[in-house]
Each structure stands twice: as structure tokens, then as C-alpha cells.
Request: fold
Amino acid sequence: MDIARFSDISAGANISDNPAVVESISYDEQGSAVVSCTFAKKGDVNKDTYVNDKDAKIILSYAGGLSDLTAEQKNIADVNGDGEIDLIDAMAVL
Ligand SMILES: [Ca+2]
Ligand SMILES: [Ca+2]
Reply:
């Protein structure tokens, strides 16, 4: 699974800040790429569609070295996008 960012998607507004997780790429009969992806909400590490204290706990657990995250979760957990997953990100989701 790959993670890509789309900064220019005319079909939807306000999604450019969220990581797009590419689920599959296929090609139609015209040779056009058909990309299937889901948009994860920044901070929604457990993907229950809510950004709340449960996500903060997961972020804190990772920041404290108590648990690990997948590459996708790390992307989602880094709420302020500074490349570090730390207390600041946990505070941001509360
Ligand atoms: Ca959540
Ligand atoms: Ca961060």
C-alpha cells in the first residue's frame, strides 16, 4: 500500500490536507489509470472516523515508545506535519 498526497483534486474541496491512501490502481480499456483511494482524517489514527482522546492515547503510546504504528498511521498521527509524532500531535487531536 502506498501513501500519496493530492494537492489538486477538483472533485472535492478541503481534502488536500489529508493523506490519501491508495488502495488499488488499475487501467480501464482506454488506458486511463483508475486510482482507488481512501482519505484518512488527520489525527484519526484508529480510523473510527472520530478524532478524539482515543487517538491521542495511541499517539502518546507511540511517542512514549510503548507501541508501534504502521507507516500509514504515522502519516495520520503527525497532525502538524513536522515529521515528529509527539505530545504536540496528541494535544492537537484533543
Ligand atoms: Ca479515531
Ligand atoms: Ca508532529
The longest helix spans residues 53-63.
